[in-house]
Amino acid sequence: MKCFPFYHGEKKEEPKSIKLASGLSNSSFNAEDDVRRSGSEFNSKVASENSTDSQRRTALPSLSQKPSNLKVFTVSELKSATKNFSRSVMLGEGGFGCVYKGLIKSVEDPSRKIEVAVKQLGKRGMQGHKEWVTEVNVLGIVEHPNLVKLVGYCADDDERGIQRLLIYEYMPNRSVEHHLSPRSETPLPWGRRLKIAEDAARGLTYLHEEMDFQIIFRDFKSSNILLDEHWNAKLSDFGLARLGPSEGLTHVSTAVVGTMGYAAPEYVQTGRLTSKSDVWSYGVFLYELITGRRPFDRNRPKGEQKLLEWVRPYLADGKKFQLILDPRLDKKHLFKSAQRLAIIANRCLVKNPKNRPKMSEVLDMVNQIVESSLSASPQLPLKNLASGEASQDTESNNKRRIMDLKSGDSNWLSKIWKPKLVRAS
């Protein structure tokens, strides 16, 4: 499932200038100057959009002043690490370009070699370069156990022209999307899916709430959640990430980009981006874990192509609910926790983004399910999943939605956005 821009007749925003994070030295061409020329919106001090909000925006936190421990590589080093970018070590190919497995010297212990993933920018022109710059700036200054670690980058010249590459820690167990695929020989057991949901929520919580600035992922999806050797889930691919709104503002106005089936409807319709857009995408992802299906799949019958529309008739009735569970799972032992996870998904998919929970609240709810599953203790009442931090009105609405599911209200989905098929231009 590839990432693409959505267009709705509005003028596409022009990215602003940015500097590479401090501590990143220049290569054979001046990478920092190139970044300033091509730009990214992260350190914008002067807004160019026509909206009132944009005209009132103040300076955003300067990522260029944050410390960075990224290593700068040369093309020659990376050729050696990847057997000259041999197809025999290619891990995959996506919208950004090809990814290769490589071996490099450990920074901590030069006598030891470590495995890395080397992502090489394809011939996508300026847009691909902007995403490369954004990844360097975001992953160069953030660090968390549930974010893929960026080891370094390369911006160099060789006989092929200008080379731009990113070097990450190697994630041997591939992506969650891979394991949810019907073609996968190793379907994820339910306990592991719950742990992945918890890890992903923890990563988003860090980005949204645990730094002195907010980062909105903007492309949260199963293919961007990778699994390490211990099956810990980590968010990856930050090329579309944006800084959240500055103080006093409710949203960031931006060109609409994302992946079909994941993008929050209010963002697709207006271009107004908030952290609640990521919360919506997370809700979609929970239904992926529950059903084993992709959010949008043209290969299925017409009535089953859009995941959220397909699950709708099955959610109110417990007997019907088991029909949407991934057939590769043992349904007897996961039924209750799957229902509880669906309730969390429903809260993330509320029509009004203001009534969706924060990711820290989502994380608390998922933690309850994981702890309950591990301890094999009696399930907590479903109504306890309502967030205690929500406003009185919001909490009341959330509890009512939970009770609607328990009592068999088949119209619960009428209260959330119905996904629309948006065509890529």
UniProtKB/TrEMBL annotation:
Residues 28-61 are annotated as: Disordered. ATP binds at K119. It is a peripheral membrane protein. Transmembrane segments: none annotated. InterPro entries: Kinase-like_dom_sf, Plant_Ser_Thr_Prot_Kinase, Prot_kinase_dom, Protein_kinase_ATP_BS. It comes from the Eukaryota. GO terms for molecular function: ATP binding; protein serine/threonine kinase activity. GO terms for biological process: defense response; pattern recognition receptor signaling pathway; regulation of salicylic acid biosynthetic process. GO terms for cellular component: plasma membrane. This is non-specific serine/threonine protein kinase. It catalyses: L-seryl-[protein] + ATP = O-phospho-L-seryl-[protein] + ADP + H(+); L-threonyl-[protein] + ATP = O-phospho-L-threonyl-[protein] + ADP + H(+). It comes from Senna tora. It is found in: Cell membrane. Residues 40-53 have a biased composition (Polar residues). Its EC number is 2.7.11.1. Belongs to the protein kinase superfamily. Ser/Thr protein kinase family. Residues 85-370 form the Protein kinase domain. The keyword ATP-binding applies. Keywords: ATP-binding, Cell membrane, Kinase, Membrane, Nucleotide-binding, Phosphoprotein, Plant defense, Transferase. Interacts with FLS2.
